[in-house]
């Protein structure tokens, strides 16, 4: 379960503050598959950064009884100077995978992402769709 409690997030703009959302409260039930859709600038990436703990709300809280995986929380936040392989290896190490287990997970992601030799290139060269497949 992930619960948003009176979440408010804004950014400074030329005209004061631009609010992404104000007093947002919502509960994502445990085990549910959730999709975020919306126009550009609607706050989808901001919400993911808040869920992943990469950004912090102006007020309110994100409460969960589970861990939120790095790829979900940082779907838009890969280290773009690293290759896809290096990003995947980094996440594997965070989750305790080393040696043969790490190599198997990297192989799985490479095959699943189906981006060919791009897997060995810096992710700054990837389209958003390619980044999504690696995530």
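Q: What amino acid sequence fits the structure above?
A:
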């Amino acid at each position: 379960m992930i619960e948003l409690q009176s979440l408010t997030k804004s950014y400074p703009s030329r005209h004061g503050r631009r609010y992404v959302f104000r007093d947002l409260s919502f509960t994502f039930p445990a085990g549910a598959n959730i999709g975020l859709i919306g126009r550009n600038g609607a706050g989808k990436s901001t919400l993911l950064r808040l869920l992943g703990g990469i950004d912090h709300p102006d007020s309110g809280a994100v409460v969960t009884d589970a861990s939120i995986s790095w790829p979900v929380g940082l779907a838009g936040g890969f280290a773009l100077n690293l290759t896809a392989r290096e990003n995947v290896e980094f996440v594997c190490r965070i989750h305790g995978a080393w040696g043969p287990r790490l190599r198997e997970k990297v192989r799985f992601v490479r095959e699943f992402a189906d981006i060919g030799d791009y897997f060995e290139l810096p992710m700054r060269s990837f389209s958003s769709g390619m980044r999504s497949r690696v995530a």
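Q: And what stands out in the fold?
A: The two ends are 21 Å apart (CA to CA).
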